[in-house]
Design goal:
GO terms for molecular function: hydrolase activity, hydrolyzing N-glycosyl compounds. The chain is mainly α and 176 residues long. Helices cover 60% and strands 0% of the residues. It is globular and about 50 Å long.
């Protein structure tokens, strides 16, 4: 996967990958099997690139019984270029959402079910990442933002099945 990814990024310069993807690709070692995708923790590795390349993972491992594999592959795919919890958990989120769509799961459940998978990803990372202290410091941000979003939309509980949006859902106003 590393070799193919580096080749594609180099062949498609007009695609303009985010800065974390460029930095991550520079550190990949496609000809070294043992270290091919091991990149150091990246304080700024939280761009959108990890999420954008994970859709195909959700299609490949869409069945509920493949959840463990989906978690492992999406986290590792994200870590290749975005070795920061916000980056590789974004990869997991995208893969999960695609798998939920393929399963026909109601949209209102996606965020809750994704948050249920995050502890499984955390356990996987504890087994596979040597120095987890840097990651732990930033892990909470991803979960907290999603929990806040679900609460804001009034869909954080299993009994809540209709998302609430403000009457004026204007992006410019929201970002002030």
């Amino acid at each position: 996967m590393v070799r193919c990814y580096v080749e594609i990024v180099e062949k498609l310069p007009e695609r303009r990958p985010d800065p974390a993807t460029i930095e991550g690709c520079a550190q990949l070692k496609p000809n070294n099997y043992l270290l091919a995708w091991h990149t150091p923790f990246n304080e700024k590795g939280s761009g959108f690139g990890a999420a954008t390349k994970a859709m195909c993972i959700g299609l490949r491992y869409w069945k509920p019984e493949r959840l463990e594999t989906l978690i492992e592959v999406s986290v590792e795919c994200g870590r290749m270029t975005h070795n920061h919890p916000t980056g590789f958990l974004g990869s997991l989120c995208t893969a999960l959402f695609v798998s939920f769509a393929a399963q026909g799961k109601p949209l209102v459940q996606w965020g809750r079910d994704m948050l249920r998978a995050v502890p499984l990803a955390e356990e996987y990372c504890k087994k596979t990442i040597r120095h987890t202290a840097e990651y732990q410091e930033h892990w909470f941000y991803f979960e907290a933002k999603w929990q806040f979003y679900l609460e804001e939309r009034k869909i954080s509980k299993d009994s809540e099945n209709k998302a609430i949006f403000p009457d004026n859902y204007d992006a410019e106003e929201r970002e002030k």
